[in-house]
Design the sequence.
């Protein structure tokens, strides 16, 4: 199973970006998915999470009202729409997914992380 993020980049304060995270492999089902971020010199922190059905998303207080998490289960893809970006949103953004997949002939359940996509917000 692989998670590949895309959509990061450089944007001015007040701007918007949309991140994507595409999962691939012998996937049976993706349960919870989420976005996390890690700024230089800081610990990785939760940004937003989504259950398998997408209902009742959870957001960090710092992004509520500005970021929206969504998912397309048919495409095994998670999104993060980021609006009104601030310099303090600068970080590497990571996708995480809890995946039920085949390992050989067995069904297993594991957590996977993407490689991260950098977001830089200039003031």
Sequence:
């Amino acid at each position: 199973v692989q998670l590949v993020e895309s959509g990061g980049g450089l944007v001015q304060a007040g701007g918007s970006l949309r991140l994507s995270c595409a999962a691939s492999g012998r996937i049976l089902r993706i349960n919870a998915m989420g976005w996390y971020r890690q700024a230089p010199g800081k610990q990785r922190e939760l940004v937003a999470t989504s259950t398998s059905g997408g209902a009742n998303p959870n957001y960090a207080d710092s992004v509520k009202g500005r970021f929206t998490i969504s998912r397309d289960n048919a495409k095994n893809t998670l999104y993060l729409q980021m609006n009104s970006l601030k310099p303090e949103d600068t970080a590497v953004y990571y996708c995480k997914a809890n995946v039920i997949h085949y390992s050989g002939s067995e069904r297993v359940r594991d957590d996977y992380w993407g490689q991260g996509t950098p977001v830089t917000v200039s003031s």
